[in-house]
Amino acid sequence: MPLKKLLFIILIIPLLGYVLYLSRAIIGPFITAFFLAYAINPLVEFLQKKGARREYAILTVYVILIVLIALVLGSILPRLIDDLTKVIKKMPVIFEEFEKLGGSLNRFYWRLPLNLKPIVGEVIKRMEIILRDTLIQLAETTVDLLSKAALFILVPVLAYYINRDYPRLKQKSYCWLTDHLGNHWTRTFLKVDSVLKIYIRGQLLLTVIVGLLIGIGLSLLGLEAAFLLGIVAGVLNLIPYFGPVLGAIPAGLLALLHSPWSVLYVIILFVIVNQLEVLFLAPRIIGDSLRMHPIAVVYLILTGSKIGGLFGMVFAAPLGAILIIFLKSIYEIAFGIENNEPISEKLNFNHPELD
Asked: What total of structural domains would you count in the chain?
């Protein structure tokens, strides 16, 4: 590849990153729409194969989703409202229990040997800071989401246009890449496409499974608002590593109303579900789709949290994986390394709209 083309690619990536950073306040709906379009694309293509035009296929999928959401909300909304009411009513009791717990910890601290007090004191202080920062982050994210709720009405509209033009954009992108930059970049974009498909659909399925398991488990433990807590845990599970911990915090706070043993049972439940996900579900549903070291994932999540709050944490890992794929391709081109990795999807432009 000529040096000018390589320099263009090297310069354009940080420039795009800077533009995204500047527009981070409004970028959430666009990224969400992009991921939604990817998630529903298999259903759209299935309907296309049955003879439907792509526009009608997308609208049909939307209608199916709306009906399913309406049915689910109709069956769970009364329960959710009831759970939420119970939680609000018990807030004073929760704060009272926290005060009691603080008093118990204080008495425990003063009974410790002198040589252990500085260590335990530091641990307690750090735990307080982590808990406080987590609650503040969740509160700020909730307020931010509510203030930008109107923006997210755009998500299905944006997803419709992304999905409608996806085959044409895909064809033109690959043809342009092949003509101007060679087969190497075509293979790179195919890898990005493959990674996103596996990751997005797998994460959505894991969200549902984890939410159901946590909800059922908390219900068996006799906790109020078990269903609501299950939904919260499922959604937060989208955040790698940190998600299960964040999901366990509200469940643990409510369990505190029963007894310290209930808190222990909740922790055990979350650990069991997390291990079930890590050891059995995720390897089979997602596999090692991102191909990143855990330390790299943690770094990306913390960076995403700083830039985009909760949404930054959710999307940091897949966006980071895409960046790594591009950087690897630049490295291979710069040093003349052959890229012979297999591509999981062949180019296929046999769409009615393109004929």
From this structure: 1
Q: Are 177 and 192 in contact (CB under 8 A)?
A: no
List, in order, residues 6 or more apart from 110 with CB less than 8 Å away.
none
Does some domain include residue 187?
A: yes
Do 269 and 218 touch, CB atoms closer than 8 A? Answer: yes
Q: Side-chain half-sphere of 95: how many Cα atoms within 13 Å?
A: 4
CB–CB of 349/171 below 8 Å? yes
Token pair 């982050």 is found at 137
Q: What is the CA 307 to chain-centroid distance, rounded?
A: 15
User: Is 222 within a domain?
Assistant: yes
Residue that is written with structure tokens 């310069």 in the block = 11
Each residue of 196-232: pLDDT tens digit? Answer: 877 887 888 888 999 999 999 998 988 877 888 888 8
Question: Rounded to an integer, what distance in angstroms lies between the CA atom of residue 249 and that of residue 132?
Answer: 11
Burial group, residue 343, by CB count within 10 angstroms (0-12, 13-18, 19+): middle
List pLDDT tens digits, range 26-58: 777 888 888 888 888 889 999 999 989 999 999
In a domain, 354, yes or no: no
Q: Which of 309, 315, 305 is nearest to 148 (CA)?
A: 309
Q: What are 282's two structure tokens?
A: 């995720």
Residues in the chain: 355
Residue range of the domain that includes 205: 3-7+27-345
CA dist 57 and 199 (Å) reads 23
Asked whether the beta carbons of 228 and 64 are under 8 A apart, the reply is no
In sequence order, which residues have a C-beta less than 8 Å from that of residue 206 and are 6 or more positions away?
A: 237, 277, 281, 282, 285, 286
Chain-centroid distance, C-alpha 323:
17
Is 18 inside a domain boundary? no
Amino acid (1-letter code) at residue 256: L
